[in-house]
């Protein structure tokens, strides 16, 4: 059984998929359910996923897929004509139909089945995993590769060097980055406000945060209300790359 908020969220996602073909953003879900924080949306989505109603798809923005709907939502959708389909006849009805009409003969029409489209080939590249990066209290920077990981080529952002890091902590959870995730980073020292970056603080501590420049000051913002924004003079912060992808294992 779903809670009222879980049911509201599932219905809202279903309606947006029907109308637009893509799921709503976390901000849209937060506003639709009148919640104060996106962390509440994360908890509701996790609960729906654990109960088998939705599935999160890796490496895609707004990657939500509805697997099934509770009976109440199905009935509401059917009454609105969204998923209304004529029910298939029960197996025991077929002989009765044949008995009433002796001339009835099932006919199979050839060629009405479409072949499944062939998927495009996917190539992967090996990237070095350069240790752990803090998404919480900064940890000591690690600059030596511990192992390699295969990364889909489509995840890499243009030209330039890329590397991977294992996330430690939960300060970026509202950006969809969880403890234990692997983040793919493109090496660059020039970034835009709002980018999620790897920042090296005083050449000793590395952290994964959202970047904001305020004059000569650099603000490193968490995506979790339990963590404060940290502000440093630009001379104390060196940007080592920008987030371009994420890999999660279940």
Automatic annotation (TrEMBL):
Q: Report residue spans for region: Disordered.
A: 83-103
Site note Cleavage applies to 135-136
The record's section on SUPFAM superfamilies has: LexA/Signal peptidase, Winged helix' DNA-binding domain
**Catalyses which reaction?**
Hydrolysis of Ala-|-Gly bond in repressor LexA
* An example Gene Ontology molecular-function term: serine-type endopeptidase activity
Alphabetically sorted, this entry's keywords are: Autocatalytic cleavage, DNA damage, DNA repair, DNA replication, DNA-binding, Hydrolase, Repressor, SOS response, Transcription, Transcription regulation
What are the DNA-binding region positions?
Answer: 26-46
EC numbers on record:
3.4.21.88
Q: Where is the Peptidase S24/S26A/S26B/S26C domain?
A: 128-244
Highest taxon of source: Bacteria
Task performed by this protein: Represses a number of genes involved in the response to DNA damage (SOS response), including recA and lexA. In the presence of single-stranded DNA, RecA interacts with LexA causing an autocatalytic cleavage which disrupts the DNA-binding part of LexA, leading to derepression of the SOS regulon and eventually DNA repair.
Family of the protein in this entry: Belongs to the peptidase S24 family.
Q: How does it assemble?
A: Homodimer.
Name under which the protein is recorded: LexA repressor
**Organism listed in the record:** Pseudogemmobacter faecipullorum
Give the encoding gene's name: lexA
């Amino acid at each position: 059984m779903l809670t009222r908020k879980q049911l509201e969220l599932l219905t809202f996602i279903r309606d947006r998929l029907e109308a637009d073909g893509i799921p709503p953003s976390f901000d849209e879900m937060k506003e639709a359910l009148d919640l104060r924080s996106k962390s509440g949306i994360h908890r509701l989505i996790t609960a729906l996923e654990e109960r088998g109603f939705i599935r999160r798809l890796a490496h895609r923005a707004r990657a939500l897929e509805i697997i099934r709907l509770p009976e109440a939502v199905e009935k509401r959708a059917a009454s609105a004509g969204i998923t209304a389909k004529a029910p298939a006849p029960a197996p025991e009805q077929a002989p009765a139909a044949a008995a009433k009409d002796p001339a009835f003969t099932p006919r199979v029409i050839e060629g009405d089945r479409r072949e499944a489209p062939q998927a495009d080939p996917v190539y992967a590249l090996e990237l070095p995993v350069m240790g752990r990066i803090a998404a919480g209290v900064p940890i000591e920077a690690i600059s030596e590769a511990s192992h390699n990981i295969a990364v889909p080529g489509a995840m890499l952002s243009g030209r330039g060097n890329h590397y991977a890091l294992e996330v430690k902590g939960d300060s970026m959870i509202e950006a969809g980055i969880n403890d234990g995730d692997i983040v793919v980073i493109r090496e660059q020292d020039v970034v835009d406000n709002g980018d999620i970056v790897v920042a090296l603080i005083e050449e000793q501590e590395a952290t994964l945060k959202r970047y904001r420049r305020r004059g000569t000051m650099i603000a490193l913002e968490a995506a979790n209300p339990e963590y404060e924004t940290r502000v440093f003079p630009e001379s104390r912060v060196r940007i080592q790359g920008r987030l371009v992808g994420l890999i999660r294992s279940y």
